[in-house]
Structures are given as C-alpha cells and as structure tokens.
Task: structure prediction
Amino acid sequence: MNYNIFSQKQKREILEEAILTQSPEEVAALYMQLGQVKNTARALGIACRFGGLEHVKVLVEGGANFTYEKPKDEEGYFLSLIYYWLLLLELNETLRSAYFIDRRDSCFTNIVTINKKNIHVLPMEQRAEIVKYLYKYREKVCLDVEELLYYAIISDSKQIIKVLKEYGVKFSKQRITMLAENGRSFEWMEFSYMIRNLNDKKYIEIVGNVVKEMGGKTLHYTDSIYWANCNHKQFRLYNPEFFRFILTHFNQKKMNKAKIMKGAIDQNNVVCLEICAENSWLDMPRKRDEMIKYASEHDRTEASAWLLDFKNRTANFALEREKAEKKMMRELNANPNSVTELKKIWGYEKRDDNTIIITRYRGKNTDIVVPEKIGNSTVVEIGARAFSTTASRLREEQIYLRKAITRILLPETIEVIGESAFYGCQALTQISLPETTKVIGESAFHGCQALTQINIPDQVIQIGAGAFSRCKNLCSIHLPKGITEINPYTFSSCHSLQSVTIPENVTVISKYVFSNCSVLETVVISEGVVEVGTLAFKECTHLKSVVLPQSIRKIKNYTHKGQEPQTIFEGTVEVTAMVIPKSYAEKYCRRNNIKYIYTEK
Result:
C-alpha cells in the first residue's frame, strides 16, 4: 500500500491500531512502510499500556518518542485559542496513557474499551519493566521522568513508584510550584479533576503521597479539590477525617474560613468545628461571635451550644471588653471624614506622588459618593475591579450589594477608570465622569445593564476594549475628541443604541465594535477614519444606513478556511452603504455585493 498519500493523522491512527492488534514484528514492518510519522507520543503510550516491552522497543528503535508538536496548517487544522486548549488536553491524555493512567479507565480497571474493543491493560509487573527500559533511554525518547513519578503517584502505581524512587527521581520544581501556587493553570485543573474521582480513603492516601514529594509545601486550595460530584460537595468536605486532612495538607491562607465554618454549622457538625478551633480559626473574638450569631439565627442548636461553651472556656472577657470600649471611643472621637472612618469604606493604595488609587469598595450603601481626598492625599484613580462583582475574595452579600448599586458620584480629581472597575454593576443607572478623566479601562462598564446614558468627557484619550459592552439599555453615546481608535468590542451588545456618529479624530474602528447592537439603525463615519475592523457591525439586524467616507483605505473581512468571507455587515441584511464614487468603500461594497448609493463629499 502506498502510505505516502496518507495524512499524518491517518498514519498515527493506523500505527495505533496495529499496536493493539498485531505482533511486534508486524508493527516494525508497518512502521517502516509508513515512513515519517509525527507526534508518536500517543502510539508509544499505547504500547506502554497495552502492547508490551517488545512493542515499545520496536517503536523506540524506529524513532518514536514522547515529544509533541503542534499540527501543521496543511493537515487541515485551524489553530484558534479554543483549539489550542484542545491540543493541550490531547497532549495530557497522551502523557497519562504513557504513564499508565487513562481518564477513560474507571477506577483503574484492567480492561478498557478502545474503538468498541475490550483491551486488556498490561500487568503492573510488565509495565514496571517498561519503565526501566524507558529510563535507560530517557533522553532518546524524551521521557520526563519527574512527570512520570507524578502521574504514577496519582494513579497509585506502587511498583512504578518504587522503580523511579530507586533511580532517585523527584518532582520538578515547576510541578511543585504549580501544585502549591498556580490554581488557575491547565495542569491544576487536570489535577483537581483526577482526584475528585477518588473515594475518601484513596484520596487521603494518594494526595498525602503527593504532598510528601513537595518539600514541606502545602497544596494550593480551591473549593474544587474536595468535590466528589456535583450533588455531594459539602458532605464530602465535612467527613471529619477528610476535613482534617484538607486543613492539614492544603494552604489555609486561600480558604474562605467563614464560609467553611458556616457549612459545618449548617450540618451541626461539632467535630469539624473542633478541628477549626484546633487550627486557630476561632481565636479572634469577632470571628467567634460571628459564628455564634450565625448558628443562633439558623437554629443550629448543637453547633450553637458548642460555640457558646467554647467561648466560655477560652475567652478573656475582661480583655475583650477593654478592646471593645477603646474601639468605640475611637469611633466616637473620629469625624465622618477621618481616615479611620474612610478605611472602613474604601480600600486604597497610595502612590509615590502622594495620590491615591481606590482599589475596593467596602461600604454598604448603593448610592455612593467617592471621596476627593483621604487624609492629605488626592484620589485620582478608580482601580481595577474596585466596584466589580467579579473582584476577588468577595462574600455573597458583597456581590449582591455591588449588583444593587444605583448611583456613583465621582470627584473632579479622577483621571483614570481602571480595568473592569464597574464590571457587573447591573443596577447602576447614574455615574458622573468628571472632565479630568483621561483613560477608561478595558471592560470598565461591562454589563452595566441599567445604564441608559453616560457622558464621556472630551479629555478622554483612551477607551479600552469592551468598555461598554453589554450595556443593553445604553441609548446614546458621545465619543470624545481625544481618541484616535475605537478598540474591539467597545459597544458590542448595546441593544438600545439607535444611532452613532464617529468623529473625525478617529482613524481606526476595530473589530466587533458595534456587533450585536440589535436596534442600531444609522451610523455616520466622518472623514478621517482609514480602517474598519473585522465584523464591526455584525448582527446589527436593524441597521439601515452607514456612511463610509472617502478616507477609508482598509476594511477587513473575516476569513476562515472552507467558509465564505464575512463582511463587516455579517448578519445585517438591510443595510445600505453611502459611499463616494470611485472610493475604496465603493470598491469594497461592489466586491462583496453590499448595497450602496452615492453621496456627495
């Protein structure tokens, strides 16, 4: 058979099928006939798991290894961001197969189904011998023995662990750092997914072995690490033995202690509350009294009784009363604008030039006045996510309050609105941007659904991508004279926006700027604009008229292999472009079958 006409993907599939069904000699002959086969990592992994040592030797002698290259465009792949993540997923599937663990392998059974065939997994003794062979040729086959140890521990492959330990293999510094710190990485999500399928006993054993390899560090904590399935998250955590293990082996600094203790109270789980106390979670009188109040309000009698008894056994009432009285006197002596009082409402940072960035709103009002000064320092910036519902470490009540904010008055000293500063403030109807404002960050007002209008001062020189996206009730906008580019998605999904005029100072309208503005009817683009980006007016279903000036020199279509190009008016069927005769815009419309009429210069 002439295998030269086969794609790399087809060659890999043929080779992998042969490993499962043919002898080592037959595989060797086939491998030679196939010629160059790229990305043989999965084939080698299948041989390690299902074939045997002789199959592995045949592949290694033929040049197979555990490296993994991105597919070439000529193979028909479209390397979008989503597809890139799928490649990473496939790569990790390959690694797990090579390292004797497979996600399809429920509870690590000895038989798995591949292509509707039941395939026997090699006995552990044989796989241990394969590890010894691969270790000997680890450089040739690009075997990451440190990662092999990690996956062997996760799969509880004790004989393989023993072999690697005899060779002195340890976790890499990168793997330890990922497990201890990087809870948003792809590898962490994979780790979290694999351990959630373990029962409590096996979880404690395997995760405990992982921690032993981390040189004294604890594991990064996220709520997902104790999920068994979506219906029993809480019950798994509050098994006392499991609960103690989590608190011992995961980083407590990342834990929402109040939330976890309230969960224990909800179940009247006194044993878990005792474990919290052992870990000093109830040492602070304020936190202890907060839990007592919660238990009492929710009629959790057993938890309430234990907490009251704990308070009686441990509290220094005289010292606590003294501290409370001193705090009360400080508050009584402080005027409403004192730094002490403002710190209760605002999180902030002081810069080297003695100006202040507001970093967090801690107050309880929904009608807000941002101070002009805190102490002797002037407030000049609303920082990233300062009012956002997606800011880190927000309690549920804080999220609800931010969603309910209706009005914000900013001082005349503000120069910068930070990235996602008001993201998700869905009840916000009124906000004043002072004339001093120069920069509006990315997604600053994303999802401010109740906002009907906003005055953007002419002094603004930069509006970030998606700054006003999904402001579905925004009826009108005034674009300032200072900006030269309208960034991607700036006004996308503004479903109440009816008309727009692009001022002459703007030179670039970026991609998707007005996409999904479903009631937008007219757009006037002034002379001066030279470029209109991809799908700028996509799905503007009511768009009737767009003025395209003579100054335009570039309009980008969206192209995708195997599909017809999409114009800037994709999904906008009734639009008529108004163009200058013989202009670039006319040529664009004619080339793309867009209806147009002539207009005077």
Summary: Residues 72-109, 230-234 have pLDDT under 50 and may be disordered. The two ends are 67 Å apart (CA to CA). The first helix runs from residue 8 to 21. The chain has four domains: 3-170, 256-317, 334-483, 507-601.
